[in-house]
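can u pls check wat happens w/ adenosine-5'-triphosphate
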Amino acid sequence: MTVLTLRALEKHYGSIKAVDHVDLQLESGEFMAILGPSGSGKSTLMRLVAGLEPPTSGDIIVDGQSVVNVPPQHRNVAMVFQSFALYPHMTVRDNILFPLVSRKVPKQEHEARLQKATSMLGVENLLDRRPSRLSGGQQQRVALARALVRDPELFVFDEPLSALDAQIRSRARAELRELHDQTRITTLYVTHDQVEAMGLADRVAVINEGRLHQVGTPQELYNDPADLFVAGFIGNPPMNLIPLDETTVAGLRPEHMLVDPEEDVPDLLIDLAVTIEHIEYLGSEWLAHGQARAVAGNGQQLHVIARLPASAHPGLVSGQECRMVGQRKDVCLFDRASGKRQVQAEVPA
Ligand SMILES: Nc1ncnc2c1ncn2[C@@H]1O[C@H](COP(=O)(O)OP(=O)(O)OP(=O)(O)O)[C@@H](O)[C@H]1O
């Protein structure tokens, strides 16, 4: 079991800080997702951990030992890429055995390790095929078997499901998590897809422009975003971010936005006059999109979204005026200048 620590890790490309002072610790057996938009530094971070590139500064520590000067072939890190990177001219068997051959693992160990990895991934019956004769899902499982066969200390995944069809992606997600639960290999999983990150990981590290914004369980990120970036990134659709005054922005999840409440709602903090733009039907719910008027008294228009259960037909049409309100208990407050979450004591009366 392996603990991975990143300490003040930096990677600069000229003036670009691809990784900007990242401190992060993965506990032994933990599955951590690195989640961020395109260009946020996720792949760079992963390449530093695998040893494919040296950091500009900072340290990477595995079980108490710095590995910054250890070349990639001597780090026991198994990587699985988006493209799977299987060798097309080799059979599945030879692809899976390749890490053992290249690391000169004694031949008598090969069959037992092949058997263990292939039975875990259910690819025993594909051993004589070439990758071009496999479906995307099968290729992904072969790539996982190849990563597993070497008994790694750390798994590093770079968007390993993004090449799969949407229909099989959710099954592949479940299989990946089952594999983790069986092996408990410490895992760093890079993705820009929050459904993957939130659905798979024990904890999620949200990164943007090379900087870590928050590390927490999926529930913590959703319920207690640390700053405006996380609030506007997590959730689909994300939080409504509504300026309250010169210094404060209120964050309110679409499911907490109440539309035309019939009864008095206690302790209102948000009370908006909204013109409906359109109503979106998503099967299990409705999304009511609208423009709020005169937010924070400056006449500024603001796009807002309310989420309503499928059973509650909103009875709204485009162009209709309505009221959207939110209670203080459901609101997160952020400092407008720094973007940071305000502590509860600073909640304006
Ligand atoms: N070899 C390089 N030379 C110069 N700049 C680079 C290099 N690699 C990455 N960058 C820059 O570093 C930043 C982070 O890139 P990185 O590929 O790590 O982001 P990412 O979050 O993985 O993006 P994506 O999701 O699009 O793959 C970007 O601004 C990128 O242009």
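The pocket of adenosine-5'-triphosphate is lined by residues 13, 16, 18, 36, 38-44, 192 (CB under 6 Å).
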